[in-house]
Write a structure and sequence with these properties.
The complex is a heterodimer. By secondary structure, chain A is mainly α. Chain A is built from ten helices and no strands. The longest helix of chain A is centred in the N-terminal third of the chain and has 29 residues, at 39-67. The relative contact order of chain A is 0.11. Chain B contains nine helices and seven strands, in the order αββααβααβαβαβαβα. Classes of the chains: A mainly alpha, B alpha/beta.
Amino acid sequence: MSLGFSLTKETIWLLEGVGALLLVASLVGIVLGRRAATDAARATVANLNARIRAWWVMVAVFAAAVAMGAIGSTVLFALLSFLALREFVTLTPTRRGDHMALFWIFFIVVPFQYLLVAIEWYGLFAVFIPVWAFLFLPARIAVSGDAERFLERAAKIQFAMMICVYCVSHVPALLMLDLKGYTNNAGLLLFLVIVVQMSDVLQYVWGKTLGRHKVAPTISPSKTWEGLIGGVLSATALGSGLWWITPFTPLQAAGMSLLITILGFAGGLTMSAIKRDSGVKDFGALIEGHGGVLDRIDSLCFAGPVFFHLTRYYFA
Amino acid sequence: MGGRLLAGLIAGFARLLAGATVRYAGYKPAAGQRIYFANHSSHLDFVVLWSALPSTERSKTRPVAGSDYWDNSAIKRYLAREVFRAVLVDRTGKTKDRNPVEDMVAALDAGDSLIIFPEGTRGDGTAIAPFKSGVFHVATRKPDVDLVPVMIENLNRILPKGEVVPVPLLSSITLGPPLRLGAGETKEDFLARIRGELERLG
């Protein structure tokens, strides 16, 4: 991982493409705002426009972090992990006896995991949370001496740590991969984030326009088969069109895109089930129109680790 | 002046740490004198509530705190007296030369607002303890000052009683509709009523 590496020409094109897309989205939002006739339509368009405005901010932050090189991306995802973990644990019914274990996760596990990403120590990066932290946490909770709902508490905290820290850390870890005949790892990171996030957006668009049949109405009323299929297929098409930024052939890029969009959907659905169980609509309120950080990166949590390992296995 | 600066820094840090969402449930923030009364489960309660007030109100709002705790070390004394301008009261209520009610009324007479925790001490965050009578005596002496119930949630998880290091979860602060002492209302009725109004916000 080189410190402060500059963006390649291809990466800059891609970021410019994202900017152009947002510009189009903003214009469409303005037109839809003028056309909305009913109160319900106005509310939907107002939410859409809030989402687009938030996208501008998210894209600007993300692009600035990526432009700062490996350190910028690693610090950004460390912060996202921290904020997502905060949202998740806030909704988890922890007890006083969990306090020190939580302190360890927030202030030791998160920084250490991302330090391992930054120094490119793959061996420890891969096992630090699933082995070391996994065994340490329940023991630390047990030391506090509160046995009530012990396994439930330990399991929920473990889950929060796996999803919000371990899984998310695989996204910037793409920058440490040594790939055959390919050095633009920032492009690989952009490919993952753009395809997964565009899949979310396209699923939303297809679902809002054509959505009829719900996938899992007891979990999420907004996820429809039409949205899922339309979103996955159009995001896969988009991803295969971006093969030039990756180490993949167009066909490989299509396969990878199909996989990460389906994983992204699985991530969104899983996190919806957790929200439904906790009786909340969103994990937080940090990003206007989107909810919390975890609401925005839930799909990335699932797509990131699998994308990382497949790329590492077949292309390193 | 150094105290004022430090107070601002501490408020900013507390806001970052506690990520508090401020909700107005029947209360409109406006200039004016009032008594904020809140549930108490963490050392952070006062700072987070105070940092959630509009900055113009913040400089005129003083916490009421126990002198037994805040007067027993130089740092705590400096924070309480110079930084937060706390009204330090004797929680044992036994010494007749320093009546807590007189101290609070004096602060109100000087035009300041107060933050009080009528439970008297920090709880474990699960239930609100019965209120001490001080708030009734203050309300009797100053019947035209609004009492604003403030429900503070999750701070007991961020920094519970007895812990030294915080865990940065998200908290929330809910301000309810202002209350006043009713004509002829007894101490017991009044304390039960305002405690109920606070509980209702949870």
